[in-house]
Design a protein that fits this description.
The complex is a heterodimer.
Chain A lengths: L4 E10 L2 E11 L4 E5 L6 H8 L7 E6 L11 E4 L13 H6 L3 H4 L7 H13 L15 H14 L4 E5 L7 H16 L3 E6 L10 E5 L3 E5 L1 H4 L2 H8 L2 H9 L22
Parallel strand pairs in A: 3-7, 3-8, 5-6, 6-7
Antiparallel strand pairs in A: 1-2, 1-4, 8-9
Chain B lengths: L1 H8 L5 H27 L2 H21 L3 H22 L4 H23 L2 H9 L7 H20 L1 H9 L1 H6 L4 H42 L3 H26 L3 H19 L5 H28 L5 E2 H8 L3 H13 L3 E3 L4 E4 L1 H23 L8 H9 L4 H11 L24 E2 L8 E7 L4 H10 L6 E8 L2 E7 L11 E6 H4 L2 E5 L1
Antiparallel strand pairs in B: 1-3, 2-3, 4-9, 5-6, 5-9, 6-7, 7-8
Helix pairs in contact in B: 2-7, 2-10, 2-11, 3-4, 3-5, 3-10, 4-5, 4-10, 6-10, 7-10, 10-11, 10-12, 11-12, 13-14, 13-15, 13-16, 16-17, 16-18
The chains are: A alpha/beta, B alpha+beta.
């Protein structure tokens, strides 16, 4: 079976500057994967490249063994909440129904099946009771759940969540992790971009990203001091890498003093 | 009745009025429909820009005697695309890009017109003359109106997704570029068709005002568009009749009606309107005052005894007339009755209401300390705010979640769901003599400073205090957590004034 997401030697440039360089990884189906790295590490760019929103400078992306263009129905993007204007006149159900728009087809009204799927998605994230509520009255966590429900209504097998925990409280964060765990158990694949390191042990698989892929694996193996230093160790570490992108992950810092960097133990 | 109808029919006997009415309707509807998209995308300024940018097209069309529609449409679209180009490819932001391009285009139009035409034509282009709509103009306007309504109706769900979340629309494979330019084309066509009716300067009003009005009145985009179209159509028709009977310029009359509708909605919208909000605030304030008065009566009356108004006034600190007005309201609601002289007595429903309030207050205090982790001494004020906003269902949920507690964190008994308030057999601590011992049952919760002192001294429900001696107006207390004499070393000593001790209720041991 092909991997849910396969990124091969992907490089992305903005304004002639490489933001991502030679990223390769495979994410099998049915896992929750975290893409973790500091702000400006190219995590969102990685998402945009996966979704085909920015063209890669080199490399390729495969979803379930095929190009993004052929798999649009199976992948859903759950954007950051700030991406939209929550004063938009719409109810919770209206927004979740938007996930069905590409499936309805042009010139067609939503069918009973569409309504069923929307209601099921709302129940899945615990928002069924708020279906008729205007979205402007939702809390941050509820907004995030509406977006997840929209992705579910679309029937996506691969969900890409962009910073879902920004500005939500700890209780909501736990709810979102619980929803993600349930979806994973149903065989969905969830990739989450997260800039901070709290609760990373909730992921099955973690990709540490800082302009390139620093490390990939289960959290227990990935979170080594060397990897964290390479990921979060500041700008100088990045420059190091730009000059020697082929260097193995821990090599460039082997000569550094132990215990330096903000996250060293 | 016939006379009334005549008011509406009479103007239509003139063919130019009938044409004007149809053109106005069409423009009102199309402008509102496409304007709703401008509104939610925050593109109102773009509407203004495009309406000004049609001028050079109109001028050049005059110059060569072309039909003005196509010239105007061409320059409108060029400007719209140009704004997008400048925004994407330079560091200039969209507001400045619009400002630069539309004023430039407008100036070019004025320059051309100044060479070729008299000022009368300029006036009509700038401010419109719906009464001069020709048969051809009307056909064109109606075609644009129908096109806008049909296309938006057919592509509504795609356009809504694009308007709300363009990135997700793109990810899910919608042709967002096509939708973007479709809206620009429809917008430009609508503006050009509105020129005859309201002119360049006022065209923006047809795009912005009805959607903004509808936005205040609805919560869904589909409803907003339909309502905006209705408001747009009505503004055109009413404005036109006003201009006919009051001899006003037709464009300004239509815009003024739309503006008046907006102001009305702003004031009178059912939930968000200024009037509704003001009324709601007043109602809440009055409800709180009545609730507080009921609780004061309940407190003063003990178990149903009548209370003199003077005592109530002293307790609540309310002015005499305010108090009388509130009491009369409570009597009308069947909660209290007037006794002989200046007395008020709580009736059974009043007792019930007061206890419901006390119940939710004390449940909230428990919730705020136990669940929300607020400090003991400061939950009273917060609970006081919440108690007025707690429907019975919520109080029941709260009680269930807390495990039906019998007492609040300060030891006061919580009335049951059926309004029973268990009798207490405690006495005030200042009534105890030297050498007497008491089990602290409750402390009065209104003074946070005293509460903090009591908490620090360990005088909380469940503690045992021993009055060591009385000195003047103060008590010296020994505080322990059980009644055992042998453990005096673990106990601490503190001094309370009489009036402070009066707020601590104990059961003598």
């Amino acid at each position: 079976m092909p991997a849910a997401l396969e990124v091969d030697n992907l490089s992305v440039a903005y304004h002639h500057r490489l933001v991502l360089r030679g990223v390769s990884f495979r994410c099998p189906s049915g896992v929750v994967m975290g893409v973790v790295g500091p702000n400006g590490a190219g995590k969102s760019t990685l998402f945009k490249a996966i979704l085909g929103l920015v063209p890669p400078a080199a490399g390729s992306v495969r979803l379930f063994g095929e190009t993004v263009a052929r798999q649009r129905r199976r992948v859903a993007y759950v954007p950051q909440r700030e991406q939209v204007d929550w004063d938009f006149p719409a109810t919770v159900k209206d927004v979740v129904m938007m996930g069905r728009v590409p499936l309805c087809g042009w010139l067609r009204r939503p069918s009973p099946v569409d309504h069923e799927r929307v209601d099921a998605a709302l129940s899945e994230v615990g928002m069924a009771e708020l279906a008729d509520r205007p979205i402007g009255q939702l809390s941050g966590g509820q907004q995030q759940r509406v977006f997840i429900a929209r992705a579910l209504a679309q029937g996506a097998d691969l969900l890409l969540l962009d910073e879902p925990f920004v500005g939500v409280d700890a209780a909501t964060e736990a709810v979102i992790y619980r929803i993600m765990g349930r979806l994973r158990d149903q065989g969905k694949t969830i990739v989450v971009v997260n800039h901070d390191l709290s609760a990373v042990d909730r992921y099955d698989l973690v990709a540490l990203v800082n302009g390139r892929l620093v490390a990939l694996g289960p959290p227990s193996e990935v979170f080594t001091p060397d990897n964290l230093r390479a990921t979060y160790g500041g700008r100088l570490a990045i420059l190091d890498r730009v000059e020697s992108p082929w260097h193995p992950a821990s090599g460039a810092h082997a000569a550094g003093r132990p215990g330096e960097g903000p996250l060293a133990p | 009745m016939a006379v009334d109808l005549d008011v509406f029919v009479e103007p239509l006997r003139y063919p130019f009025m009938a044409r004007a009415l149809l053109a106005g309707l069409s423009v009102g509807i199309a402008g509102a429909v496409i304007g709703s998209f401008l509104f939610v995308r925050r593109w109102s300024l773009l509407g203004d820009a495009i309406s000004h940018a049609v001028l050079p097209g109109v001028a050049i069309a005059y110059l060569f005697s072309w039909p003005y529609f196509w010239g105007a449409l061409a320059t409108a679209l060029l400007t719209a695309v140009g704004i997008g180009f400048v925004e994407r490819n330079t560091r200039i932001k969209s507001d400045a890009a619009m400002g630069i391009l539309f004023i430039g285009a407008f100036a070019a139009g004025l320059a051309v017109l100044s060479r070729v035409r008299s000022s009368v034509d300029v006036f009509h282009i700038l401010f419109g003359n719906v009464l001069g709509v020709s048969q051809g103009d009307l056909l064109l306007t109606a075609a644009v109106g129908a096109g806008v309504v049909l296309l938006v109706g057919a592509l509504f769900k795609e356009l809504q997704l694009w308007a709300f979340d363009p990135v997700t629309a793109q990810v899910s494979g919608l042709p967002v570029g096509f939708l973007h330019y479709l809206v620009l084309v429809l917008l430009s066509a609508t503006i050009v068709s509105a020129l005859r009716a309201v002119g360049i300067v006022l065209a923006l009003a047809m795009l912005v005002t009805p959607p903004a009005t509808a936005y205040l009145l609805t919560r869904r985009f589909s409803e907003m568009i339909v309502l905006a179209a209705a408001i747009g159509a009505l503004s055109s028709v009413v404005g036109l009749y006003l201009s006919f009977y009051l001899d006003l310029a037709s464009g300004p009359a239509m815009v003024l009606v739309a503006t008046a509708a907006f102001v009305l909605a702003l004031l009178l919208a059912p939930e968000q309107g200024l009037v509704a909000r003001g009324v709601q605030r007043l109602r809440t304030a009055r409800q709180v005052a009545e609730d507080d008065l009921l609780k004061a009566l309940h407190e003063l009356s003990g178990r149903g005894a009548p209370v003199r108004l003077a005592a109530l006034q002293a307790d609540t600190g309310l002015g005499r007339s305010t108090l009388r007005r509130l009491v009369r309201r409570l009597r009308r609601a069947g909660l209290v009755e007037f006794g002989p002289g200046d007395e008020v007595r709580l009736l059974e429903p009043g007792v019930r209401r007061a206890r419901d309030l006390i119940r939710s207050h004390r449940l909230w205090e428990r919730y705020l300390t136990d669940v929300a982790g607020m400090p003991w001494e400061s939950v009273h004020q917060e609970a006081h705010r919440l108690e007025h906003l707690t429907p019975p269902g919520l109080a029941a949920e709260l009680a269930t979640e807390l495990g039906d507690p019998a007492r609040d964190p300060h030891g006061a008994p919580i009335p049951t769901a059926t309004g029973e308030l268990p009798a207490t057999d405690d006495v005030a601590l200042d009534g105890l003599g030297a050498g007497q011992r008491g089990l602290v049952m409750r402390v009065e919760d209104e003074d946070p400073v005293l509460l903090r002192r009591l908490k620090e001294a360990g005088i909380v429900p469940g503690a045992v205090v021993l009055v060591q001696r009385r000195e003047g107006r103060a008590l010296y207390l020994q505080v322990g957590d059980d009644a055992d004499d042998g453990r005096q070393d673990a106990a601490s000593t503190c001094r309370l004034r009489d009036d402070e001790a009066a707020r601590v209720r104990v059961r003598p041991a």
